[in-house]
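Ticket #4471: complex job returned nothing on first submit. Input attached below:
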Amino acid sequence: MKVVSGTVTENEIKISLSGRIDSNNAHDIENEIMLIVSGKENLPTVVDAQGLEYISSAGLRVLLHLKKMNSDLCIINVNSEVYEILDMTGFTQMMTVEKAYRVVSVEGCEEIGRGANGTIYRIDQDNVVKVYNNADALEDIRHEREVARIALVLGIPTAISYDVVRVGNSYGSVFELLNASSFSKILSTKPEKMDWCVKEYTNMLKKIHGTVVPEGKLPDIKETALGWAKFMKDYLPEKQADKLISLVEAVPKDNHMIHGDYHTKNLELQDDEVLLIDMDTLSVGHPIFEMASIFNSFIGYSEYDHEIVKKFQGFDYTIATTFWKKFLAAYLGTNNENKLKEVEDKARIVGYARMIRRSIRRHGLESEAGRAEIELWKNELIELLDRIDTLLFTRNELEIEAERDNLPQVLSFIEQHLEEVGCSMKAQMQISVAAEEIFINIANYAYAPEIGKATVMIEVSEDPITVSITFMDNGKPFDPTKKTDPDISLSAQDRQIGGLGIFMTKKMMDDVSYEYKDGKNILKIEKNLG
Amino acid sequence: MSYPYKIDLHMHTRVSDGTDLPSEIINNVKNAGIALFSVTDHDAVKGCAEILSLLKKDDPSFITGVEFSCKDELGKYHILGYRYDVAAPAINSIVAAGHNLRMEKLEKRLDFLKREFGFDFSNEDVDALRSLDNPGKPHIGNLMVKYGYAETKETAINNYINKFHSGNKYVRPEDAIKAIIDSNGIPVLAHPSYGRGDEIITGDDMNSRLKRLKEFGLQGVEAFYSGFTPKLQNEILDFAKQYDFFVTAGSDYHGKNKIVVLGDTNLPDESMYPPGLIRFIKAVRFK
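Support reply: We reran it on our side without changes. The output follows.
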């Protein structure tokens, strides 16, 4: 068998090696390689080591001399034994060395997910493979592995690929996913689990959106969204086109994490753990952009053809719309129809812009059905742009340093929500007084002498309209609803106000309850506005 | 003091398996801009004797060299000897002993091939083999190809010549080291990471090897070598520091027999020469 063969094209030299290279044949192989490359030393050279079983140090020297003559050298299809030798001797640091990838077939495998860049299949009980759409996906794989690691380090449960394989003409990355089922599968096979799914789906998203990402680690989704908005310039009347751009531009910079493709096929339940897959669209930014892509996944893409969601997610359009509404209420902590509608409309603005662009880029304008759909989305978008002046919305949760100086921020956060539900001035004042008492109490004592965080969450339920505000901190356990012994280490003034404060809070609110759970003080006040 | 800009302390002439004559190699060294060089033929010193007689006043600085193939129960080694006296009895007797061993082995291999496979060669061809300083497996292999006993030199070696086991007669590293020292020379381990050419030795294996050879009297390691990656080079440099070894640099140039470029040693800029190399240069240039 011939060990060396080579082909030279106009822009590349390809040398194939097979068998064994050691001191018995290294010299002859070197001569043959020289014959192939001589006079073409400036051409990029690819050494295909697919058939190479073994290389001794005599063979390594041949590769090194080739590298010295031709600096643009890479070695591909290296088996694991040869790779180990190249790695141990430092060759992998000097030149690009690509392992031979295991070949995996996905024929007949269950498709369990589909994202922007690829499709996920279950290849056996314990493993799934994400097959990339892009044939030259090694760079995408590296990117996704890196962002998944960033997410994991920041506390977001996610699967990280452990192997790269060849699937047909493309690449795939393999993840371990033991007996997991996606939320799409749960929703389509066990509709009674809807409320549980909404709760877990929302909690995971809040966790993602509550995660601060260090500067520069992830791309800014606002930049991407601005691209969508600018694309619309050619397809919208000037007035609405300009408004779309200015709305996106007005969204402030936000360093919290955004998943970017948060649909129910990308959320998996493995044992009792909920975990994310398909992390390649991870970015930072304002949650409105996430809401837009979630809206699209449940409703947008299927609004005019209800079969699409069935085809893509496995459950029907009714389940999709119900899930969306329940999710939105849970995420925003309110059942107030006006508030839900407001955020949905904002999500639709970004969502329609994105879908129109996507459809046009996929030749949507070339078919009758495509043109009709784009026209419908466009009309909706124009109507929305004419009446909506900001993409911002307030979330029902505020995490803040528990410090006296932050009190005004806490109070204005609460007041904003109370105004939205049309709360009377009197009730508003009572709630503010109670909130001030509780927040100052946390600021003074929960972490003293250190400083820690407090979370304030507002929830509104209707019939009758009731506002509940929950304060959470990770400080020393303390139940203010219990009558406590006077603390003689405190100044007389503090004691008096503290005592009076909780007394007044109890009197003005309809309910005050306390629990200590998962290392947290959780104090909840409720006021009936009916 | 100023150090030579370019050095190459490892090269072969036609006395062993290179293609340059000793006289040619002097010219090639000069043209390569090398200021200090050594010729290190396998198990032979007569090339150095010839070069000493040929050197002129303005030629590059030269130190004598040799590369011994050694073996013991624990492995195979190439041991370089530098700046020995070419007339010293110790080095000449080990060269002669090595030559006798190879000649003995040649005869045994030829007998074996005839006995086992019926491969016969003409007297002229056998005499030509005998006249070589270092007739080895490749030479016999080439002859077998010429006679049509094998398709290629490799199959000749792998399928026939290697079936013969030459027994346990070889030059031991401690004997080579002692002969070099007794001839006023400096023993240095050649391309340590590659053993005798086909192995890859790193980490603990390298450490135990160097420890044992130092006990035998080894004084240096060839850390700069044309076939080393930065990773291997750095490992040897670390060991050199740990064992307080001299450091040397060589290309292993073989003329037209290999694509190694004369003077290619991977040495950095001279301002970066490690102390072990500077000490070596001082030791060999200022006796």
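Chain B touches chain A at residues 137, 152-154, 157-158, 193-195, 197-200, 202, 226-232, 257-261, 264 (CB under 8 Å). Closing as resolved unless it happens again.
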